[in-house]
Specification:
The chain is an alpha+beta fold and 343 residues long. The protein has two domains: 97 residues, Phosphorylase Kinase, domain 1, CATH 3.30.200; 218 residues, Aminoglycoside phosphotransferase (APH), C-terminal lobe (Aminoglycoside 3'-phosphotransferase, Chain: A, domain 2, Alpha-Beta Complex). Helix 4 packs parallel to helix 9, helix 5 packs parallel to helix 11 and helix 9 crosses helix 10. The mean pLDDT is 92. InterPro entries: ACAD10-like, ACAD10_11_N, Aminoglycoside_PTrfase, Kinase-like_dom_sf. One of its GO terms (molecular function) is kinase activity. It comes from Pseudooceanicola antarcticus. It holds the Pfam family APH.
């Protein structure tokens, strides 16, 4: 058994998979993916197949965080729907095997884009990628919860009320210093939650381009990844997550589109993406979008604070990057306050 986020006890993994995964044959090697800050993720290579293993980080974790069992459940439920996901195989809920829970799925071959300005692509190839993001997001929100067995995947009631309460508690549990911007944003959100409009869909929770794989020869999404924050909730938060990323500074640090001449680069404006999504989802538009954008900045600030705290505690997936991310919390909080002022 290992408690290291950077390595796996391959002997334990191989023994368990030989017993639980039909057709599995070793020997197996493992390579850790360095992208992502949540659940450590490894490529498993055998003589005949390649898999991906996602595990909870070992050690003391915030309550309800790193729910690999939920990731497994939702991806299994979505197989065969209009939402592209990796095929999941087995879930290990016994932490004694490798030190924490994990699941195994197929590796999906495809293109991964880390930056939303898509510098790898020619100008004319960029807009179709963004339109595909809109199409798949509408498909996620159009999932039949009853038919997929996901009707109980999240609580009833006002999604934003429970999310703000949850992430406020998570942030306080991971707080390392007083940040006035974050306190002000949490207070504003607490007093400005919209009335429940009855919309209740599957929500991804972290919908952005670096959580997707695209087919090698087309703009179609091959798989939406990282379902850790998924639940049944309100769809506008996922739309705002896309716009949140785009509003950040361009380049590898901000990973946004701020300052980019989008027309010259063949990229959609925020309003175009929102209108395209609404047309696909059968919605007239999104009123009061500033609230949803402020909420996504708040939630991301809370996530980053958790990553920073795990890095300080020594159980982050990428400790060096995790320590660097602590400085981003006030930036996201200030951006959330700016969005709040647009309501």
């Amino acid at each position: 058994m290992t408690s290291d986020t950077q390595t796996l006890d391959l002997h334990a993994v191989e023994r368990w998979l030989k017993d639980k995964l039909p057709g599995f044959q070793g020997p197996v090697t493992a390579e850790k993916f360095n992208v992502g800050q949540s659940n450590p993720t490894f490529r498993l290579t055998t003589p005949s197949h390649r898999y991906v293993l996602r595990r909870k980080p070992p050690g003391v974790l915030l309550k309800s965080a790193h729910a690999v069992d939920r990731e497994f459940r939702v991806q299994k439920a979505l197989l065969g729907t209009d939402v592209p996901v990796a095929k999941v195989h087995v879930l290990c809920e016994d932490p004694a095997v490798i030190g924490s829970e994990f699941y195994v799925m197929d590796e999906v071959e495809g293109r991964h884009f880390n930056l939303p300005d898509l510098p790898e692509l020619e100008r004319e190839a960029r807009r179709p990628i963004q339109q595909e993001m809109s199409r798949v997001l509408a498909a996620i929100h159009g999932v039949d919860l009853a038919a997929t067995g996901l009707a109980d995947y999240g609580p009833e009631g006002n999604y934003y009320r429970r999310q703000i309460d949850r992430w406020t508690k998570q942030y306080r549990a991971a707080e390392t210093e007083t940040r006035p911007e974050m306190d002000a944003l949490m207070d504003w959100l607490d007093h400005n939650i919209p009335a429940d409009d009855g919309l209740r869909t599957l929500a991804h929770g972290d919908y952005r381009i670096d959580n997707m794989l695209f087919e090698k020869d087309s703009p179609r999404i091959a798989a939406v990844l990282d379902w850790e924050l998924s639940t049944t909730g309100h769809p506008y938060a996922d739309v705002a997550a896309v716009i949140m990323q785009w509003s950040m500074p361009a380049g590898p640090d901000g990973r946004g589109l701020k300052g980019v001449d989008r027309q010259a680069q063949g990229l959609m404006e925020d309003e175009e993406f929102i209108a395209d999504y609404c047309a696909r989802a059968g919605l007239p538009g999104i009123e009061g979008f500033g609230f949803y954008l402020a909420f996504t900045f708040f939630r991301m600030a809370g996530i980053i604070q958790g990553v920073y705290k795990r890095a300080l505690d020594g159980n982050a997936s990428n400790p060096e990057r995790g320590r660097q991310m602590g400085a981003l919390v006030p930036r996201f909080a200030r951006a959330g306050l700016d969005a709040a002022h647009t309501v």
